[in-house]
Write a structure and sequence with these properties.
446 residues, alpha/beta, Rossmann fold, Ubiquitin-like (UB roll), de novo design (two linked rop proteins), 3 domains, four-stranded parallel sheet, four-stranded mixed sheet, 41% helix, iron-sulfur, quinone, quinone binding
Amino acid sequence: MTVVTPAGKLTPVLSDSWDKEQGYSLESYRRNGGYQGLDKALRMERSEIVDLVKASGLRGRGGAGFPTGLKWSFLPPDDGKPRYLVVNADESEPGTCKDIPTMMGNPHVLLEGIAITSRAIRCEHAFIYLRGEVVHVYRRLLNAVRELEEAGIIGEGLGPNGDFNLKITVHAGAGAYICGEETALLDSLEGMRGHPRLKPPFPAVAGLYARPTVVNNVESIASVVGILNHGAEWFGAMGTEKSKGHGLFSVSGHVKHPGQFEAPFGITMRELIEMAGGIREGHQLKFWTPGGSSTPIFTAEQLDMPLDYDSCSQAGSMLGTRALQVFDETTSVVRVITRWTEFYQHESCGKCTPCREGTYWLKQVMLRLEAGQGQEGDVDLLLDIANNIAGRSFCALGDAAATPIKSGIEHFREEFEAGLTTPARELFPYEASAVFARATQKEGVR
C-alpha cells in the first residue's frame, strides 16, 4: 500500500477500496491483501498485539481521542469468563458522516479489525451497534459477516493453535443519539432503554452483561488493520507527534465538492477546503465546525491551524469526529444553532434534570430569537441556561447542547441580539444559503 505522508496530502488507507469494483466483497478485499493482518495477529501473543497498537500512537477516532491500546490494557486479568468487544457505530450527530461510508464501502476492514482486537483481548463474541435507520449498511454488514463464517475466517477452533473462537453480532438500534454514549449503548444492547450509567465502574471492568468490555468507534477498530499489516512506525510516520496516523475528514456545506478526505492528522482546514474546490463561487467563509455540531465553532482565523487533537483543544474547540461543516456569509448562525438545539432537545434521554429541562428552554429561546420575537435579556438567559447544563448533566449530551450556544454567542452575539427585533429569514433569506435551487413546477417537478 502506498500512502503520501506529509501533512496536506491525502492518505487513502480505509478509503482505498471505495472506488474498486465490488470493493465491499470478501473476494475483492482478500485480493487486495485483506485478512493478512489477522493472520499475523493469530501468530502473535495477545500482549504483543496490545503493545503494537500502543506503540503506534492510535487514538480513539470517536471524538475523545483516548489512546486505543491503553484502553484495551485497562481490562482486568483474564479470569476465563466472557469478555466483550462492542463497536460503536451509532453515528448520529449532525454533520458526522465518516463511519457509515466506511462500513458501506469497506465492511471487511472493520470486521478484520474486530477479529484482530478480539484476538488481543480474548473476546469470543463481538458486537457492532449500528444506527438502525441505515438499513442498507445493516444488510451489507450482515452479508459480510456471513461471508466470513462461510469462508471459515471466524467461527470455532480456528487459528494455528485452534484457540481462536469468534462470533460477530450486528445489532441495529432504534435511532437514539444517546446510544452513542458508551454506557447507554450497553444498556440498549442488553434490551433496556438507552440511558447512561453512572461511572465507575467503567465498561473495562463491568460493561456488557457486567463483564469486562472494550467499546471503540468504527474507525478506531478499522485502523488497527493497517498497523498490523505495516507496523507501528508506518502508522506513526503520518500525522503529528501526539496525533499520529490517518483519519477521515468529512467536509460538507458551502464548498464546491463536499466529500470524504482521508488525510494525516495535522492537515489544515484551508487545505481541505481547497481539496473540496473552495467555497462556492462568489461567497466567503463565515464559520465552520472542526468536529461536528457539539464542538465550539471556528472562523477564518483558524483556517491554518493543524487539525489534530491538541491544536484544536488549545484553540478552544475539539477535533471530535472531524465533521467539518462549512458555512458562508449567507448563513444565519442563529438558524443553524436553533436546528442543532432542536436536535439535542429531541434526543435528550430525560434521565437528568439539567439536560431534560435545560435543552427544552434553550430550544424555546432559540426559536423566538430565530423568529425575531426575542425578549430583552434572552441572549444572557441562553448563556445562563447553557452554563447550568454544561458540566452538570449526567453525560456529555448536555455539554453537546450547551457548547454551540456559548460558542455562537461568543463569535456572533450581534446576530443573536438582532433576533430581538428581526427574523433570521429577513436577515439571511433561505434562498441565499441554499446549496441547491428549488425546482419549480414549470421545470417539470410537481
